[in-house]
Amino acid sequence: MAYEALAAVYDRLTNDVPYGEILDFYRRVWGAYGLEPTSAVDLACGTGSMALLLAKEGLSVLGVDQSEEMLTQAAEKAAELENPPYFIRQRMEKLRLPAAVDLVVCCLDGINYVTDPAALREAFAHVYEALRPGGLFLFDINSEGKLRGLDGQILLDEDDAVFCLWRAEFDEATRICTYGMDIFQKQGKLWERNREEHLEYAYRVEELTQWLTEAGFVHANVYGDRRLEAPAPDEQRIFIAAQRPGGN
């Protein structure tokens, strides 16, 4: 299962992810929609890095992920915060919240990990129900061009105690990019090896915006990577925002 071995070393291997810049972009987007959120869900929250940043902004935050191992890491990171997020284990297509929120975010291509389009459409419907009237759904995807371009690539992440080798293959028929991952962790003088497989579906912007509309969302906007402008033809990461109608 994905993230069983990766969870413990995920933050070390992704220490270059610009979470602060992503949050700055979120602020610009929700400001453009006239939203001042006080509550948020970090969907597919992983080890909780974005959830923690949102909580430090003063928001009431719920982190949702299907990986128990990732949520364990998230809870440990949040333990010392004065305003810690709460974390629950759910699949996004089965999302159920105790109360509606102002904002739902899903960062770092969590949407691509839903490899069944029918399940993603169901997830959009549940996100709609999770939002208060006027609330905002904001997510990003790895673009179809990026995932297709990864075919045959071998990627490497490492530090002094972790070595991770990614092998990517893209299937044109299924539109799925498969990452075979070998993770080596140093244990004393020896290295422990684990293997995981991660799958991402290459969604197209037009189908995502159509499904958002079908779920009831309005004012869908498509952005380039952390820019309040349309994505370039060769954009690697694309952000999409949509609003539940109503509110002030």
Describe this structure in words.
- The chain has 248 residues and is of the alpha/beta class.
- The protein folds into two domains: 6-142 and 204-243, Vaccinia Virus protein VP39 (Rossmann fold, 3-Layer(aba) Sandwich), CATH 3.40.50.150; 146-201, S-adenosyl-L-methionine-dependent methyltransferases (N-terminal domain of TfIIb).
- It has helices at residues 10-13, 19-32, 49-56, 68-78, 117-130, 144-149, 205-215, and strands at 39-43, 60-65, 86-89, 101-106, 131-142, 154-158, 162-171, 176-187, 190-201, 218-223, 237-243.
- The strands form two sheets. A seven-stranded mixed sheet has the order 3-2-1-4-5-11-10, sandwiched between helices.
- The protein starts with 9 loop residues before the first helix and ends in a 5-residue tail after the last strand.
- The model has no long low-confidence stretch (mean pLDDT 94).
As a whole number of angstroms, the C-alpha radius of gyration is 18 Å
- Helix coverage percent of residues? 25-40%
Shape: globular
CATH fold call of the largest domain? Rossmann fold
What is the CATH homology-level superfamily of the largest domain? Answer: Vaccinia Virus protein VP39
Number of continuous helical runs? 7
